[in-house]
UniProtKB/TrEMBL annotation:
Reactions it catalyzes: [(1->4)-alpha-D-glucosyl](n) + phosphate = [(1->4)-alpha-D-glucosyl](n-1) + alpha-D-glucose 1-phosphate
Essential cofactor(s): pyridoxal 5'-phosphate
PANTHER family: GLYCOGEN PHOSPHORYLASE (PTHR11468), GLYCOGEN PHOSPHORYLASE, LIVER FORM (PTHR11468:SF3)
Domain of life according to the entry: Bacteria
Gene: malP
Record key words, sorted: Carbohydrate metabolism, Glycosyltransferase, Pyridoxal phosphate, Transferase
UniProt feature, compositional bias: Basic and acidic residues: 13-24
Full protein name: Alpha-1,4 glucan phosphorylase
Family per similarity comment: Belongs to the glycogen phosphorylase family.
Annotated spans, Disordered: 1-32
Function: Allosteric enzyme that catalyzes the rate-limiting step in glycogen catabolism, the phosphorolytic cleavage of glycogen to produce glucose-1-phosphate, and plays a central role in maintaining cellular and organismal glucose homeostasis. Phosphorylase is an important allosteric enzyme in carbohydrate metabolism. Enzymes from different sources differ in their regulatory mechanisms and in their natural substrates. However, all known phosphorylases share catalytic and structural properties.
Length: 844
């Protein structure tokens, strides 16, 4: 099956020295057009017949009337058949320990390219389709992005699942099979508009329905007590409402097809599809009301929680998938091992952020009620089985739920939470740590904001290990949000810096650069990312650097076509491509980038005859539907683009483009084409970042603050190969204590003052002059993310970048060093660390 080195890489010869391995990559070749290793004719014939068979018997189409979507489905089904044997083997084996990864998001994107890459079937499938008159690129493009996540959290979960499969770590991912993933974004006159993402409209050929894996999920109701034996009281939850969680499995194939794991996604269904009596009485809408209410749980990713009804639906989603997952994994363990008391010895449950934190009382409930364990035994099993990954220090992102809502929706769980909290606080009191202020800080119930359950605290208490996702983030966890809890258990918090799967973000996203790396350091780099470090020596090889730059040029030309098609803006591939692509949020500071763009625009206008560095600013990202300020920032970016792009005085020196509907597949087009990676969040607010890793791996130089994983990226690539600016996390905290810091920064920066005046005056929005007045006033008098304080140093860093771009030889050497030295940021390394130090699972 694995008869190819890697899709699109061409022949690899590992018997020659690095200087002898030269490919025929040309500057402007289209994607995947690297000369390919010949494939066996019988393999091509077999794949062609498999695709034709699926087209006829699974899709019900003939080649003459098949659409691209039909060819995609037939190809996916043919590939899926190649995975099934490994799937069955993985399911049949009973590993000593299995990892269960619970995440509300899995931003898996398109799966066909991943399967082709990891199975080594790209060239075989491409040739088979070509014989049928079909282009593989068109088949890949017909697959909808599975947008089952919002951003880095969901993409990280997808990378981790792929790495666990590649490392043969037995694992099952658990999430929700959303009917509509993250919304489809369009821009109407620069304003974000949301529409449903209909990725399941024509089904998902990659999934297997598992109706036999169906569980009942309860909500509301009451709790009763009974005497199980003398002195032993059992509580029984009688939910007022129940829904069904039905499993759908998506195979996650590892590198070279050696191991396959499962991503199990839950769909919500009503216990009864229709109330037939009500329907026959003429109440046709009311007859399906219960079904609509149940199915709403898995209808949409992240429903707005700006209303009480939205908050309740969000909590229902979190409990729904967590309960189904806990029931499923406990049932599997009992079937395999017999005794639930050994769960921690054979299962490791990882909670990806606070969304599945309700797993703490849910696992307790299952152990207490369904398996009749005593409290101490249940708590011991729970706290040895669960671990929790924290992804944020922002107070608004650390989930809390109103006690009233929890008591009404999950009454049994609130009883368990109260008891966990009482025992915890009682223990603090006995140890002499019972001061009121201290107890309030470590309590699971926040009494200062209307009584709310602190889900981060709950996850912390119920977990064996709690990890941060970068060295800086972990240190800040210990000293800020979990300071008091950390003091009680200093060994619980550990660091596990995030990583990305190189199969997706280098091999698949940038096959030309991968081919160049294979030529230079040998084919072993495909299996061992650490061998990328061998590229360091080639930063001084003028021929290698020329070809490295040629690869980038080809990707920039391809991206220029996409930008033109999607925005109508023509951009010059020879310009510096300055990229900021991520979720739109004030702490990520897209607004700081926009302010610098306006300042650069003003500077070019003031001195049009200067030798300005040609620059294209590329933005992409989605704002949450209820996040008004983030939507306004998108509109400002579009207004700035309109002003800059229409001004003949800056022609050829500055362009701005906001690409709508950011997705995994769009990222795969942008990242290999980026020259500059904007990672400019306020120091101390970005937990890690993974976009920074993907861009640096593909050779983009980073301009950023010392925030999240930027700190470790600087350590690995070298301070001379990254552009750092702004306050440190400690300096941010200090500056926030100074009154009037924003006004002082603006007074000291005439350039910034001129930018704010221009935006506030309405010159960028003449049809609505007051549109940005409140935005500017917030910067002048509040500025909680310190844009004004960091602005001048950001401007300095950008002009340093201009000077560096003017020295191509030195620039491309820096780019090569970035690619070579990013090997440590592989998610394979992350997963090995989790396996060895948190899950205690052996890696093959």
């Amino acid at each position: 099956m694995l008869n190819e080195v890697l899709p699109g890489l061409g022949q690899v010869e590992d018997s020659k020295g690095a200087g002898d391995r030269r490919s025929s990559i040309e500057p402007a070749q289209p994607l995947h057009s690297v000369p390919a290793r010949p494939v066996a004719a019988d393999a091509v014939t077999e794949m062609r017949e498999a695709i034709l068979g699926k087209l006829a018997f699974a899709i019900g189409r003939s080649p003459a009337n098949a659409r691209e979507r039909d060819w995609y489905a037939a190809t996916a089904l043919a590939l899926r058949d190649r995975i099934v044997e490994a799937c069955v083997a993985s399911d049949a084996a009973v590993p000593n320990k299995r990892v269960y990864y619970l995440s509300l998001e899995f931003l898996i994107g398109r799966l066909t390219s991943d399967a082709l890459n990891n199975l080594g079937l790209f060239e075989t499938t491409k040739a088979a389709l070509a014989q049928l008159g079909v282009a593989l690129e068109d088949v890949e493009a017909a697959e909808p992005d599975a947008a089952l996540g919002n951003g880095g959290l969901g993409r990280l979960a997808a990378c981790f699942m792929e790495s666990m499969a590649s490392l043969s770590i037995p694992a099952i991912g658990y999430g929700i099979r959303y009917d509509h993933g993250l919304f489809r974004q369009s821009l109407e006159d620069g304003w974000q508009r949301e529409a449903p993402e209909t990725w399941l409209a024509e089904g998902n050929p990659w999934e297997f329905a598992r109706p036999e894996a169906t569980y009942t999920i309860g909500f509301g109701g009451s709790v009763t007590m009974s005497m199980a034996s003398e002195g032993v009281i059992r509580r029984h939850w009688a939910p007022a409402e129940t829904v069904k969680a039905v499993a759908y499995d998506v195979p996650v194939v590892g590198w070279r097809g050696r191991h396959v794991n499962t991503l199990r996604l839950w769909k919500a269904e009503a216990e009864s599809a229709i109330d037939l009596a009500r329907f026959n009485d003429g109440d046709h809408v009311g007859a399906v009301a219960a079904r609509a209410r149940a199915e709403a749980i898995s209808r949409v990713l992240y429903p707005s929680d700006s209303s009480p009804a939205g908050q309740e639906l969000r909590l229902r989603q979190e409990y729904f998938f967590t309960s189904a997952s806990i029931q499923d994994l406990v049932r599997r363990h009992v079937a395999e091992r017999g005794d639930v008391r050994s769960l921690a010895d054979h299962a490791a449950i990882q909670l990806n952020d606070t969304h599945p934190a309700i797993a703490v009382p849910e696992l307790m409930r299952v152990l207490l009620e369904d398996h009749a364990l005593g409290w101490e035994d249940a708590w011991d099993v729970t706290t040895r089985t669960l671990s929790y990954t924290n992804h944020t220090l922002l107070p608004e992102a650390l989930e809390t739920w109103p006690v009233e809502l929890m008591e009404r929706l999950l009454p049994r769980h609130m009883q368990i939470i109260y008891l966990i909290n009482w025992m915890h606080l009682e223990e603090r009191g006995k140890s002499g740590q019972g001061g009121a202020e201290h107890l309030a800080a470590v309590s699971l119930i926040d009494e200062t904001h209307g009584r709310r359950v602190r889900m981060g605290h709950l996850a912390f208490h119920g977990s064996r290990r709690v990890n941060g996702v970068s060295a800086l983030h972990t240190d800040l966890m210990r000293s800020t949000v979990f300071k008091d809890l950390h003091a009680l258990d200093p060994d619980k918090i550990v660091n596990k810096t995030n990583g990305i799967t190189f199969r997706r973000w280098l091999h698949n996203a940038n096959p030309e650069l991968t081919a160049l790396a294979v030529e230079a350091v040998g084919p072993g780099v495909l299996d061992d990312p650490s061998l990328l470090r061998g590229l360091d020596a080639f930063a001084r090889d003028s021929e290698f650097v020329r070809r490295y730059a040629a690869v980038r040029r080809g990707r920039k030309e391809a991206l220029a076509v996409i930008v033109s098609e999607r925005t109508g803006i023509d951009i010059d591939p020879s310009a510096l491509f300055d990229v900021q692509i991520k979720r739109i949020h004030e702490y990520k500071r897209q607004l700081l980038n926009i302010l610098e763009t306006v300042a650069l625009y003003q500077a070019i206008k003031a001195e049009p005859h200067r030798d300005w560095t040609p620059r294209v600013k590329i933005f992409a990202g989605k704002a949450a539907p209820s996040y008004v300020r983030a939507k306004l920032i998108i509109k400002l970016a579009c207004d700035v683009a309109r002003a800059v792009n229409d001004d003949p005085e800056v022609a050829g020196r500055l362009k701005v483009a906001f690409l709508p509907n950011y997705s995994v597949s769009l990222a795969e087009a942008i990242i290999p084409a980026a020259d500059l990676s904007e990672q400019i969040s306020t120091a101390g607010m970005e937990a890690s970042g993974t976009g920074n890793m993907k861009l640096a791996l593909n050779g983009a130089l980073t301009v950023g603050t010392l925030d999240g994983a930027n700190v470790e990226i600087r350590e690995h690539v070298g301070p001379e190969n990254i552009f750092i600016f702004g306050l440190t996390a400690a300096e941010v905290l200090d500056r926030m204590q100074e009154p009037g810091y924003a006004q002082a920064a603006i007074r000291q920066s005439p350039r910034l003052a001129a930018v704010l005046d221009m935006i506030a005056s309405g010159r960028l929005s003449p049809e609505d002059p007051g549109r940005y007045r409140a935005l500017v006033d917030d910067l002048r008098y509040r500025d909680q993310y310190l844009l004004t304080v960091d602005f001048d140093d950001y401007w300095r860093a950008q002009r340093e970048i201009d000077r560096a771009w003017a020295e191509p030889k030195a620039w491309w050497a820096k780019a090569v060093h970035n690619t070579a030295r990013m090997a440590w940021f592989s998610s394979d390394r992350s997963m090995r660390e989790y396996a060895e130090e948190i899950w205690r699972v052996r890696v093959a």
